[in-house]
UniProtKB/TrEMBL annotation, chain A:
GO terms for cellular component: ATP-binding cassette (ABC) transporter complex. CDD domains: ABC_cobalt_CbiO_domain1 (cd03225). It comes from the Bacteria. The keyword Transmembrane helix does not apply. Belongs to the ABC transporter superfamily. GO terms for molecular function: ATP binding; ATP hydrolysis activity; ATPase-coupled transmembrane transporter activity; cobalt ion transmembrane transporter activity. InterPro entries: AAA+_ATPase, ABC_transporter-like_ATP-bd, ABC_transporter-like_CS, ABC_transpr_CbiO/EcfA_su, ECF_ABC_transporter_ATP-bd, EcfA_1, P-loop_NTPase. Signal peptide: none annotated. This is Energy-coupling factor ABC transporter ATP-binding protein. Residues 6-240 form the ABC transporter domain.
TrEMBL record, chain B:
It comes from the Bacteria. Its main location: membrane. It holds the Pfam family ABC_tran. It is a peripheral membrane protein. It comes from Geobacillus proteiniphilus. The keyword Translocase applies. This is Energy-coupling factor transporter ATP-binding protein EcfA2. CDD domains: ABC_cobalt_CbiO_domain1 (cd03225). Keywords: ATP-binding, Cell membrane, Membrane, Nucleotide-binding, Translocase, Transport. NCBIfam families: ECF_ATPase_2, PRK13634.1.
UniProtKB/TrEMBL annotation, chain C:
Its main location: membrane. HAMAP family: EcfT. The chain crosses the membrane at residues 29-58, 70-87, 107-129, 247-263. It is found in: Cell membrane. This is Energy-coupling factor transporter transmembrane protein EcfT. The keyword rRNA processing does not apply. It comes from the Bacteria. One of its GO terms (cellular component) is plasma membrane. Belongs to the energy-coupling factor EcfT family. GO terms for molecular function: transmembrane transporter activity. It holds the Pfam family CbiQ. Forms a stable energy-coupling factor (ECF) transporter complex composed of 2 membrane-embedded substrate-binding proteins (S component), 2 ATP-binding proteins (A component) and 2 transmembrane proteins (T component). It is a multi-pass membrane protein.
């Protein structure tokens, strides 16, 4: 097995002047090109983890390794170049006066020569399909468009990993789909590792692997199939289940002998059809 | 209170180079006691529509009738306060409106503005804090020491404290986790039933619209695209898809089943329970034929 | 609300004035503001006015639009005019209303001073009408560049200015939202007793402060996450390019100054 691109080992964190740990003894890894989803109730420590991963917060205990190197003061700037973080609020992460200025911001910070910037900005804006908006000010963009600009800002640095911290939760369904589709494409085509923090279980169901947080700790980790098998255990900690899973278990309760282990409506229909035709 | 929109148009920054028409030719009637969901793509005019319900915005042409009151472009009730008391509005991210030192004061703020005596306002605050699912000892705390979800509940209690007849909700569950979302929607539904409120809910969740609403108003590019029962509105998934909207997962399942099985499922399949029932029937029919 | 006040508003365009280097425009306007004070007779004022009018005409912004924007300051101009009309007692008496007499010097002074004020406002308005806020910021940063050696945090100041400008529309939107939310809770922002009005203002300002702090905090975090660590080692995307036409315009101002010196009495 290849060396993981990210590994965090026994990490704990407490905010200043707080007695409770926001994150406690958390460990997990991510492989290159993987799509990892982190789910958990409000306040379960998801954003805290994201912030630690790019050195915005420093763990009280434990170690974070990225690209085979320990995250510390010496490596933090390189990590911030290679790992992009998209936050929840589209407005509060738009620094530039216009779209191109915003994309340029991180390039400027990293001392990229101006001639190269122009090239990279053009390339990044194309990847998020926002070419016509290059000179727009933020107040003329929708939330989803702003989030795509944020992603372009990250892409311009040619990152290895993108972290989405509920980046779609303030968007309408279409805006959400646009953003996710963009990230999915990057994940597939450029093998950019994705760590997606989300409350949307339908989205989580499409991840390669899921991490379930509960009160600052990792409660479970595994493929969507393994995780959704936990069923009502997830509902007890404030989470939802994908529709097909909920429907399936409801039907089983009613005595329809369905198999478990599918998360999409399409799969459920097939499963029902198989049963139906056997009768 | 019946609400009627007649040919309502709203232009922001009218008569200026920045003019922008957000609503036009809106004709909607909402009967007293109904639960109405308003859905539509971003920028379709939902929030603009809502703000006409309590005179925060005035139509630039046409008329809005709310109970006895009529608001037109050049006429509005001299006193908007009575109207604002009858129509409570919970805006998106209502926790941003909190400002008092204690939760109790914040909940009482609205009623006091409308001239409710202080001890009665306080009594109401105690009653409401439980209704929104928080404990009474929260009342003495500063609203800014609470978690996001708790702050949202306090803000909602502050609107409910006006004892409105019409409750207007603009995406009240955005940003909450699934459990928080479900609890909150159930709470509004409970209130709707118990206090016989007229409820107008703006939502992006077709599931919530299908589950709770008696009627759905579909907005598209500034005007009403469709208005009917959930069953009627969700009948044609393709047409909705064309304006950027989807149907609830249950309806998707129903439609896929109908296609795969080559049958017609009579149930509208608006909720999980209904759909499970319908599938059960599908299967039992087979057993009968055996 | 903002419709009538065009000062500080950018009007997109591609005129020669729009395309001038912001540094050139800043220097032109700055120099103009200084040399306005050289004028002291009809010839010099005529010259200054001519220059300002030519500048405005070259911007291709409809004159009616500029005039409409200047309207709000007309009463200030009028007031200056009247003040000088009655206060300056020089030359012959031209007109007498009761105890008030208007002198020739008064008329002259009044017209000159209000014209001076009008020209100042016109030229600074032309700057903001034809230059985006971010260009102004870039221009200021570049012009103040030499101060970096004196440890003045020019880069930080410029960034601060750019971010404030970027957030003005956002804050205005936010203000409107909070006002509406409080209005729905029975707050009347337009009237009421003093204590009620104070309460109304508090109910607006507290949420506005809190959300601004939160925004500032989130923005700072986002900037750090994107690798911001001060001006050191930073490259710049926006680059200013000084063109021959910029030199020509500056030369025109120098010429104007020379002519004013010659023609003033
Ligand atoms: N700046 C802070 N100071 C003190 N405590 C904090 C701070 N930020 C978060 N916390 C606390 O740390 C815990 C974890 O918060 P975190 O933001 O990581 O949760 P989350 O899983 O991202 O939640 P959400 O789904 O609401 O975004 C919570 O109990 C929260 O109240
Ligand atoms: N205060 C305002 N000034 C100018 N234009 C506005 C204002 N508020 C909204 N608009 C414009 O009016 C149109 C309708 O906006 P509205 O907020 O009603 O949409 P919405 O359906 O609520 O969208 P969303 O789902 O994003 O909340 C949009 O084009 C918007 O840009
Ligand atoms: Mg979070
Ligand atoms: Mg809205």
């Amino acid at each position: 097995m290849a060396e993981p691109i990210l590994s965090i080992e026994g990490v704990s964190f407490r905010y200043p002047n707080q007695s409770d740990y926001a994150v406690q003894n958390v460990s997990f890894t991510a492989e290159r090109g993987e799509w990892l989803a982190i789910v958990g109730h409000n306040g379960s420590g998801k954003s805290t983890i994201a912030r630690m991963l790019i050195g915005l917060l420093r763990p009280e205990r434990g170690a974070i390794r990225l690209f085979g190197r320990l995250l510390n003061d010496a490596t933090v700037w390189e990590v911030r170049r290679r790992v992009g973080l998209v936050f929840q609020n589209p407005d509060n992460q738009f620094v530039g006066a216009t779209v191109e200025d915003d994309i340029a911001f991180a390039l400027e910070n990293n001392g990229i020569p101006r001639s190269e910037m122009v090239e990279r900005i053009r390339e990044a804006i194309r990847q998020v399909h926002m070419e016509p908006f290059l000179h727009y000010e933020p107040h003329r963009l929708s939330g989803g468009q702003k989030q795509r600009v944020a992603i372009a800002g990250i892409l311009a640095l040619r990152p290895d990993m993108i972290i989405l911290d509920e980046a779609t939760s303030m968007l309408d369904p279409r805006g959400r789909e646009e953003v996710l589709e963009t990230v999915r494409r990057l994940n597939r085509q450029q093998r950019i590792t994705v760590l997606s923090i989300t409350h949307d279980l339908e989205e989580a169901a499409k991840a390669d692997r899921l991490i379930v947080m509960n009160k600052g700790e990792v409660m479970a980790e595994g493929t969507p199939e393994q995780i959704f098998r936990l069923g009502s255990k997830l509902e007890r900690i404030g989470l939802d289940l994908p529709f097909a899973v909920k429907m399936g278990s409801r039907l089983r309760e009613q005595g329809i002998p369905l198999r478990a282990g599918y998360f999409t409506t399409e799969e459920l229909v097939e499963e029902l059809w198989t049963l139906y035709s056997k009768k | 209170m019946d609400i009627v929109f007649e040919k309502v148009e709203h232009v922001y920054n009218a008569r200026s180079p920045l003019a922008r028409r957000a609503l036009y030719d809106v004709n909607v009637a909402i009967r007293s006691g109904a639960y109405v969901a308003v859905v539509g793509h971003t920028g379709s005019g939902k929030s603009t529509l809502l703000q006409h319900l309590n005179g925060l915005l005035q139509p630039t042409s046409g008329a809005v009738k709310i109970g006895e009151e009529t608001i037109t472009s050049n006429k509005r009730p001299k006193q908007l306060k009575p109207l604002r008391k009858k129509v409570g509005v919970v805006f998106q991210f209502p926790e941003h409106q909190l400002f008092e030192e204690t939760v109790e004061k914040d909940i009482c703020f609205g009623p006091l503005n409308f001239g409710v005596p202080e001890d009665e306002a306080k009594r109401k605050a105690r009653e409401l804090i439980k209704l929104v699912g928080l404990s009474e000892d929260v009342l003495a705390k500063s609203p800014f020491d609470l978690s996001g979800g708790q702050m949202r509940r306090v803000a909602i209690a502050g609107v409910l404290a006006l004892e409105p007849e019409v409750l207007v909700l603009d995406e009240p569950t955005a940003g909450l986790d699934p459990r928080g979302r479900k609890e909150m929607m159930e709470m509004f539904y409970h209130l709707h039933r118990e206090k016989q409120l007229t409820t107008v809910l703006v939502t992006h969740s077709m599931e919530d619209a299908a589950r709770y609403a008696d009627e759905i108003v579909v907005m598209h590019e500034g005007t009403v695209w469709g208005h009917g029962t959930p069953e009627e509105m969700f009948r044609d998934a393709d047409k909705l898809a064309a304006i950027g909207l989807s149907v609830p997962e249950t309806v998707k399942l129903k439609q896929q089943l109908e296609k795969r099985f080559g049958v017609v499922i009579p149930s509208p399949c608006l909720t999980l329970e209904q759909t499970a029932e319908a599938i059960q029937q599908l299967f039992s029919k087979v057993s009968v034929h055996d | 609300m903002t419709n009538h006040l065009i000062i500080g508003q950018y009007v997109p365009g591609h005129s020669v004035i729009h395309r001038l280097d912001p540094r050139a425009k800043l220097l032109i306007v700055f120099a103009y503001v200084l040399i306005v004070f050289l004028a002291n007779n009809a010839a010099t004022y005529a010259l200054l006015s001519l220059f300002a009018l030519a500048f405005a005409a070259l911007s291709r912004i409809p004159f009616s639009f500029i005039a409409r924007g200047l309207k709000p300051i007309l009463w200030v101009v009028l007031f200056t005019l009247l003040l000088h009309l009655f206060m300056t007692k020089e030359g012959d008496v031209i007109y007498q209303i009761g105890a008030l007499s208007v002198y020739e010097g008064g008329i002259k002074q009044g017209i000159f001073i209000s014209l001076r004020f009008l020209l100042l406002v016109l030229m600074t308005t032309m700057l903001t009408l034809t230059t985006t806020p971010i260009e102004v910021t870039d221009g200021v940063e570049s012009l103040l560049g030499p101060l970096k050696k004196m440890r003045v945090p020019v880069h930080e100041l410029a960034l601060m200015m750019a971010i404030s400008l970027r957030f003005i529309p956002t804050l205005m939107e936010e203000t409107e939202k909070i006002m509406k939310a409080q209005a729905a809770r029975g707050v009347d922002f337009s009237g009421g007793r003093f204590s009620e009005r104070m309460k109304a203002i508090v109910s607006l300002l507290v949420p506005l402060f809190i959300s601004s702090f939160k925004r500032a905090d989130e923005l700072a975090t986002a900037m750090e996450a994107r690798g911001y660590r001060g001006g050191e080692g930073r490259t710049k995307f926006r680059q200013l390019a000084w063109k021959p036409v910029d030199t020509v315009f500056l030369a025109a101002v120098a010429l104007l100054a020379a002519l004013l010196c010659l023609l003033r009495s």
